[in-house]
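[INFO] parsing input record for CoA transferase subunit A
[DEBUG] input buffer:
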Amino acid sequence: MNKVMDLDEVIEKVQDGATIMFGGFLGVGAPLKAIDKLVEKGVKDLTIISIVNAYPGQDFDIARLYKNKQVKKLITAHSSTCQLALEQFKNGDIEIEYFPMGSLVEKIRAAGSGLGGVLTPTGVGTLVEEGKQKLLIEGKMYLIELPLKADFAFIKGYKGDRLGNIQYRGLAINTNPIMAMGADYTVAEVNEIVDVGGIEPECVGTPSVFVQAVVQGYSFDEHKQVYTDLWVNSKQLK
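[DEBUG] output buffer:
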């Protein structure tokens, strides 16, 4: 099955009110072209799931969705990197639901693995445990964290083949492999699309069974230039 698709065709599937996972960590390993297309379409009332909220600023990563007022709810472990999101939360325009970072990752993994939930001691005795079931196991208390699933996951890979196998490079391996598992429809935006066999089996970070569409993102050279320009303009690089 050839899973290579045009990005515009994929974005047409996303409707108002969708729940979307976005791979990446502060913009690193983020599906930038897909985010831009979602902004262009203007789909609204989104629930977005991001391990750490957008890269600081208003015109990069998922911050663009806040700027365009497309977000209804954010599920995250850390939100203060995006001032726009915090302002909208204070104004009552969006809802934010927090989970400890490890718990959030495990909730997504549980959804992709078909598990009924995960047990964790993190959050016991704090506000995190409110409304959750607890189990006492061998004298230690655990919270039951339920699986977290999305309608769509937009992830970022280095290479993708026509069957949907994905190879990662560098720090893009952060949240992308987990989020690829946790959605009904996973879209892998990649730097390079290759023929089947163009990715060594031991380099496959996400197998094709989890991916419904492979789309062309920036080429690797373009990708490097985007981040170089970003970090130079923000004075993190000279």
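[INFO] The helical segments are 7-11, 32-41, 63-67, 83-90, 101-113, 176-181, 220-233.
[INFO] shutting down worker
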